[in-house]
């Protein structure tokens, strides 16, 4: 059985790698690149969610990543590949500013602090004109080449971001099954108990924050190179990079390994499809539908698509019941419990 | 341990499912995009405007101007016997602009696109078109950066931010200084601007132009574009006691700034808006008589010398018939004029949208000032910026924004009035 | 010196608006335990209602407030009954995203219905100046400020003295126990949500005469209102008032003396610092609230 699913996975990764062989449509490849950027950011966001921590401020790390690579490349002539590595470092350092809130605040309070943090960074990026060019933003030069992460066609971008996304997923799976992940998940349901057993959960949470921020910074840096234009309104955008990854995670299944991947794969094309289908009709209609869809999806599948599908799977494949009902000990953590048990504003 | 393995296997399978979706998706989407067909008797042009999100209002106005131009031209027989087909894309933010530009650029029938009202959106969309070798024509965004990137196939037909600030400085030195009875070097001028790309790029130009104009007492007063309260800005202005305030504002902040200047009794010799919110009818609706006397430098508005702007009456009539109101700002007219210039150039290429042919035709195309519906002429400089597109000084009077300066475009002389009723 | 006084006055008047919006959120956040990201949109709806009643029927905001407030109470009840109540036992995270969806929906519904125009309720009386010792303000702003204070006192009284208030406080502290001793939790949640929405509506009507309305007019207030609620303490109405005034003052002081472009940064910085130093809010929430946590 294990071999079988390994073969499946390898086969599908290979198939994902072959997408550019099936289609050379630059727009479709572009959507796939955007999906993979969102897969990456959502998976990164989800590493905090393993510990039951809700961040609504990942735009901060995304933006720090974007600006690091852009400033280093455009103003200091540093190679963008090095820039991506630097972006991971700066995003990780930036995340340390949230270390104290992370350890002191619980549940919604931490979420609000991250939201305010990302907004502050956006305003500072607008203000710091000499460094960031302010709202006008930075445009990367059109010089092409693999060394400069700049190509005329989408295919190379696709492979680069696919590799990055696979690495992020790999890290996420590794953390999930490591001792760290086990303790994180346990602390999500009962932090006190885990600490009583002598596990230093603050240290684990901090590690999760730093890893999550560094990965997000890497994708922010890639997006900067891919989208050419870096400005505070976009790269520190709360709706695009704080809310959307969290939304993808929630819709896919927060705190699971597959959830964020599924969420990003479903939600990115949905937004894209709604916009292209309804543009030119009534102003704003696409977002009305998006809003309604969001409410319905979250209400019908509060545990996310992954657990929703599992339920369906169980219902329609009774002969697999023994397999399907395998204890969920390491399955998705129940976010319901996790925040319900949070101890108010402080811990 | 066994439990863990089973769960892991399930997860692996689920992630495999996710990957399957990535694979399936392009194939599905491929079906939907393949449907667009080509036809040799029409010219397909991409059109990017934000009609949802925070830029929806003026984005929509801009798009209306392009639609009217297209429909009127098609009704008159099209371009070189071909009809014009605008392929619209809503671009509420920069990511959407990149996405949509990618989508339209991948349609092999689209080699030419127009846009985009906002500088940020224009930079993103034109970058995709230019790097792909297609043509992008900006009809409304003002940031200098758009034409400063040395792309051969990125054009701008409307005036850039520099035109606004140059005219403002000229108006101050050639008219207001005398009216206020102070030498230029003693005038205390403050530019209050919001901090989006629009405000910041105008401010950047203003600093240079003010220095050139000999305004030694010139300073900036930035504020946050999303502020719901501008008391601090107004109090700071009050403390500096300026003779003239130039403002660069979007819609809500223009109204707020005006109201708070009035409420705080800030006396000014003159107040000059820079398009945006100061051209909107909503600005006058909100402030009533207090808005009278406020100057505004912007694209051509409908209350202008009609001999200077041939074709404007047809535009206004068509707009009113279609939308049952007068244009909300000058953006519809600017985009209307720009789209018509584009069609005239396509007439020169005999309807070909080949980027190289288009570029040569555009560079050879010349029109005198005062021959288009905005009063603009046409002549591209080395950056493909239309040098003969210009802005004018308007003044609010009643609920009309009347063109007052320079003389060839004016319908009346500028009237001395204290802005905001103080 | 005069500049300082004027800045402070402007700040307190602005803070009154924040407090007005925040008390409603405090009820929803504190009692129903929902992080309502659509709170600003509730304000926006009331602003549109004010504008239309003024434009269509010449109803002054200070009359239409008596029509809009009950209507919005009903709207809040409907929201709770049909959208939020079915998810009562879901995690707070899930509920956050329902309210986010609601916020996107309402913003764009306004865009679909009314377009992107910026509309202003121009009620002349509210725009008249009022000047004491060189410090000026408009009647509209002063009214909003005074109503905010009156409303907070009324709510304070409601929560302390009336049965409804006592039940709401019990719910705020411990829903399960309250349910066990026979309090009809669902019914009182409807009341709390209705009241919270009505408060947002009052805020929307009162700021109508000096803030123009457009689809995104309320969006900016949501995060600010959360900041105020957290500063003042969950479930603490007086705290919300003082928190609002404090934030208003921080914003204008930072604007006047540091840089207007950074005034929001100052607000968020104060927020994060207060969260760290006193997570229960400057003035403390109801004590047990902090212990029980947010369900």
Automatic annotation (TrEMBL), chain A:
InterPro entries, per the entry: ABC_transp_permease, LivM-like
CC terms in the record's Gene Ontology section: plasma membrane
Entry annotated with the keyword Cell membrane: yes
An example Gene Ontology molecular-function term: branched-chain amino acid transmembrane transporter activity
Alphabetized UniProt keyword annotations: Cell membrane, Membrane, Transmembrane, Transmembrane helix
Subcellular location(s) of the protein: Cell membrane
Pfam family, one: BPD_transp_2
Secretion signal span: none
CDD domains per the UniProt record, alphabetical: TM_PBP1_LivM_like
Nucleotide-binding as UniProt keyword: no
Membrane topology listed for this record: Multi-pass membrane protein
Region entry Disordered, spans: 318-347
Residues passing through the membrane, by range: 27-48, 55-74, 80-102, 109-129, 157-177, 206-229, 287-307
Highest taxon above the source species: Bacteria
Species name: Cryobacterium suzukii
Record protein name field: Branched-chain amino acid ABC transporter permease
Automatic annotation (TrEMBL), chain B:
Domain Leucine-binding protein, residue spans: 42-398
First and last residue of the signal peptide: 1-34
Organism: Cryobacterium suzukii
PROSITE patterns (UniProt xref): PROKAR_LIPOPROTEIN
Family in the record: Belongs to the leucine-binding protein family.
Protein's recorded name: Leucine-binding protein domain-containing protein
UniProt-listed CDD domains: PBP1_ABC_ligand_binding-like
Keywords attached to this entry: Signal
Gene3D superfamilies, per database record: 3.40.50.2300
Domain of life: Bacteria
From TrEMBL, chain C:
Domain of life: Bacteria
One GO CC term on file: plasma membrane
GO biological process: amino acid transport
Pfam families in the record: BPD_transp_2
Main localization (coarse): membrane
Keyword Transcription appears in the UniProt entry: no
Record-level Gene Ontology MF annotations: transmembrane transporter activity
Transmembrane segments: 62-84, 96-118, 138-159, 188-207, 261-278
InterPro entries: ABC_transp_permease, BCAA_transport_permease
PANTHER family: AMINO ACID ABC TRANSPORTER PERMEASE PROTEIN (PTHR11795:SF445), BRANCHED-CHAIN AMINO ACID TRANSPORT SYSTEM PERMEASE PROTEIN LIVH (PTHR11795)
Name of the molecule in the record: Branched-chain amino acid ABC transporter permease
Species assigned in the record: Cryobacterium suzukii
């Amino acid at each position: 059985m294990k071999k079988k699913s390994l073969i499946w996975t390898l086969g599908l990764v290979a198939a994902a790698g072959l997408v550019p062989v099936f289609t050379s449509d630059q727009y479709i490849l572009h959507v796939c690149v955007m999906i993979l950027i969102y897969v990456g950011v959502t998976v990164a966001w989800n590493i905090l969610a393993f510990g039951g921590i809700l961040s609504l401020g990942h735009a901060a790390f995304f933006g720090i990543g974007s600006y690091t690579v852009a400033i280093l490349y455009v103003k200091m002539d540093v190679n963008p590949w090095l820039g991506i590595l630097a972006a991971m470092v700066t995003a990780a350092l930036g995340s340390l500013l949230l270390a104290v809130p992370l350890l002191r605040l619980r549940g919604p309070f931490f979420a609000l602090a991250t939201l305010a943090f990302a907004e502050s960074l956006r305003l500072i990026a607008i203000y710091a004109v000499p460094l960031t060019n302010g709202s006008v933003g930075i445009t990367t030069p059109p010089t092409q080449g693999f060394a400069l992460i700049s190509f005329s066609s989408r295919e190379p971008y696709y492979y680069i971001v696919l590799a990055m996304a696979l690495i992020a997923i790999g890290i996420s799976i590794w953390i999930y099954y490591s001792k760290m992940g086990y303790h994180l998940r346990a602390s999500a349901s009962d932090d006190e108990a885990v600490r009583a057993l002598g596990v230093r959960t603050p240290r684990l949470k901090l590690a999760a924050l730093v890893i999550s921020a560094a990965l997000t910074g890497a994708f922010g840096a890639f997006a900067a190179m891919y989208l050419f234009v870096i400005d505070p309104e976009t790269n520190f955008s709360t709706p695009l990079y704080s809310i959307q990854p969290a939304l993808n995670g929630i819709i896919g299944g927060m705190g699971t390994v597959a959830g964020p991947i599924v969420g990003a794969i479903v939600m990115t094309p949905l937004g894209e499809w709604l916009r292209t289908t309804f543009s030119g009709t009534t102003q704003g209609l696409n977002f009305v539908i998006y809003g309604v869809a969001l409410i319905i999806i979250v209400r019908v599948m509060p545990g996310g698509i992954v657990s929703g599908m599992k339920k369906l799977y169980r219902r329609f494949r009774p002969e697999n019941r023994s397999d399907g009902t395998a204890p969920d000990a390491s399955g998705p953590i129940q976010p319901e419990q996790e925040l319900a048990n949070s101890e108010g504003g402080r811990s | 341990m066994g439990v863990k393995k089973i769960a892991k296997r399930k997860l692996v399978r689920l992630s495999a499912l996710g990957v399957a979706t990535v694979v399936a998706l392009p194939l599905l989407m491929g079906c939907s995009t393949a449907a667009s067909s080509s036809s040799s008797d029409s010219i397909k042009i991409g059109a990017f405007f934000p009609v949802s999100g925070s830029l929806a209002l003026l984005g929509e106005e801009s798009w209306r101007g392009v639609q009217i131009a297209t429909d009127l031209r098609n009704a008159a027989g099209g371009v070189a016997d071909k009809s014009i087909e605008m392929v619209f894309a809503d671009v509420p933010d920069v990511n959407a602009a990149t996405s949509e530009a990618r989508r339209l650029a991948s349609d092999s029938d689209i080699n030419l696109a127009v846009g985009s009202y906002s500088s940020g959106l224009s930079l993103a969309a034109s970058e995709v078109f230019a790097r792909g070798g297609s043509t992008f024509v900006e009809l409304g965004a003002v940031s200098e950066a758009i034409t400063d990137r040395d792309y051969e196939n990125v054009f701008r037909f409307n005036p850039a931010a520099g035109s606004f600030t140059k005219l403002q400085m000229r108006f101050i030195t050639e008219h207001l200084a005398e009216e206020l009875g102070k030498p230029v070097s003693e005038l205390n001028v403050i530019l209050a601007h919001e901090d989006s790309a629009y405000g910041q790029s105008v401010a950047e130009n203003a600093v240079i132009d003010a220095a050139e104009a000999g305004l030694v007492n010139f300073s900036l007063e930035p504020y946050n574009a999303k502020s719901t309260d501008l008391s601090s800005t107004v109090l700071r202005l009050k403390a500096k006691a300026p003779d003239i305030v130039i403002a660069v504002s979007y819609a809500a902040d223009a109204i707020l700034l005006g109201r708070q200047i009035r409420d705080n009794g800030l006396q000014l010799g003159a107040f000059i808006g820079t398009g945006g919110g100061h051209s909107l009818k909503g600005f006058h609706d909100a402030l009533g008589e207090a808005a009278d006397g406020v100057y505004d430098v912007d694209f051509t508005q409908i209350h202008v010398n009609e001999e200077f702007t041939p074709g404007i009456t047809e535009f206004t009539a068509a707009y009113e018939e279609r939308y049952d109101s007068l244009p909300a700002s000058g953006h519809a007219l600017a985009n209307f004029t720009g789209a018509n210039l584009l069609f005239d150039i396509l007439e020169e290429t005999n309807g070909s949208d080949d980027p190289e042919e288009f570029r040569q035709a555009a560079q050879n195309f010349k029109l005198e000032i005062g021959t288009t519906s905005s009063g603009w002429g046409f002549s591209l400089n080395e950056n493909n910026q239309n040098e003969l597109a210009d802005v004018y000084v308007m003044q609010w009077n009643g609920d009309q924004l009347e063109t007052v300066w320079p003389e060839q475009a004016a319908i009346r002389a500028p009237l001395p009035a204290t802005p905001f009723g103080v | 010196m005069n500049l300082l006084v004027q800045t402070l006055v402007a700040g307190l008047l602005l803070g009154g608006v924040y407090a007005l919006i925040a008390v409603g959120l405090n009820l929803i956040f504190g009692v129903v335990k929902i992080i309502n990201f659509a709170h600003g949109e509730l304000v926006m709806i009331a602003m549109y209602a004010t504008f239309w009643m003024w434009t269509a029927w010449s109803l002054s905001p200070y009359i239409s407030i008596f029509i809009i407030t009950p209507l919005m109470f009903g709207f809040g009840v409907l929201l709770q009954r049909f959208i939020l109540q079915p998810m009562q036992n879901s995690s707070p995270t899930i509920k956050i995203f329902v309210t986010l969806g609601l916020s996107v929906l309402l913003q764009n519904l306004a865009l679909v219905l009314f377009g992107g125009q910026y509309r202003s309720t121009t009620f002349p009386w509210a725009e008249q100046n009022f000047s004491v010792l060189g410090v000026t303000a408009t009647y509209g702003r002063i009214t909003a400020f005074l109503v905010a204070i009156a409303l907070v006192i009324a709510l304070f009284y409601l929560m302390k003295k009336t049965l409804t208030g006592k039940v709401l406080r019990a719910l705020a502290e411990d829903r399960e126990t309250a349910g066990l001793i026979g309090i009809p939790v669902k019914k009182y949640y409807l009341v709390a949500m209705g009241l919270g929405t009505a408060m947002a509506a009052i805020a929307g009507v009162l700021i109508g005469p000096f803030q123009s309305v457009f689809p995104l007019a309320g969006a900016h207030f949501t995060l600010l209102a959360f900041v105020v609620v957290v500063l003042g303490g969950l479930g603490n109405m007086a705290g919300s008032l003082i928190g609002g005034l404090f934030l208003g003052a921080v914003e204008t002081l930072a604007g006047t003396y540091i840089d207007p472009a950074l005034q929001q940064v100052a607000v968020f910085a104060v927020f994060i610092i207060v969260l760290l130093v006193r997570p229960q809010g400057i003035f403390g929430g109801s004590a047990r609230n902090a212990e029980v946590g947010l369900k």
